[in-house]
Amino acid sequence: MRALPATIEPFQGETVCSVYHRLVERNDLTTGELWTAIRRQNPGLPLRTTPGLVPRIVEDLAGLPRGRLDQDADTHRLFVRCEHTLWQHSSCPACAPLPAPVTMCRRCTGGENVEARARTGGVCARHRRWHYAGHDDDLGDETRYGQAERCLTGPLWQRGIGLDTGELELATELLTLHRQHVGAVEGRGDAAERLRALYPEAVCLTAFLTEPWATRFLAHTHIGQLPVVALIEATVVAVSAHSRSDLNNISETFQATGREASVRITRTVRYGQPVPIGSLGTLVRESTPRLRAVFLRHNDARRPPGTRSSPW
Ligand SMILES: [Zn+2]
Ligand SMILES: [Zn+2]
What we know:
By secondary structure, the chain is mostly helical. It folds into three domains: 16-71; 76-143, no CATH class; 166-300, no CATH class. 42% of the residues lie in helices and 9% in strands. It has twelve helices and eleven strands. Strands 2-1-11 form a three-stranded mixed sheet, with no helix packed on it. The protein has a three-stranded antiparallel sheet with strand order 5-6-7, with helices on one face. A hairpin with a 6-residue loop joins β1 (80-82) and β2 (89-90). The radius of gyration is 23 Å and the shape is elongated. It binds zinc ion (2 copies). The site of one zinc ion has 7 residues, from loops.
């Protein structure tokens, strides 16, 4: 199709839907009007406005070369373990998925509403803004948010963990439960607001529980529910107290080597003996299989998905 009178330049990782909506706005159209025009030339398309189905047409309308909207994909993929890299984590173009779309910082986009699937968390370090789920809030001088962002887009990304892969959501849930239990007021509101409030702690908790030693411990088939709950509870308490020395103690205490798993709390407790747990542990004990599965998810190996390409 021919380019519209007003064209646009996409941002890094910008989604097809985001480009479509900006095109509509810039050309004083409605989303329905433009979709009707597209369907007139491509009658096989559904009635509902679904620009994500027609990336090549959206590129034509925006005056972009074909394939431009896929061009950034490889730099933004979440890492996976797959056979192409001998089961090491990598951003394999055949297997690694793109992250879920995030709304971009509006100062970076010159005030426009832009959604991108990019290697980013919820923080714009340049403008010190929180930009997740449509928010655009000032973070002031909070250096912890910048540190958390670097951790998420660095080591966590390389483990295959992004904002929406589930680990941060679970970490936020555990931290919120702990805070409610000790009577702290933070952690109210919906999931997005809780993540905003607890982002530095949630990233720290996730990073700690997905380190290689923790992954070995959580994946160990000889370790039952109680030591797992004890590890998670101790980590939530240490992260909430911002205690680096407590975290160091935990990583020395919970170790799994070979067929043997040992947990030292006040004394060495071997597999099969009861492990003391506290109030948070008692609360989440029933959910241990889910906790274990979510914090181990990044370690799952991936088979290449079937290749799909859009005819439009
Ligand atoms: Zn692969
Ligand atoms: Zn920004």
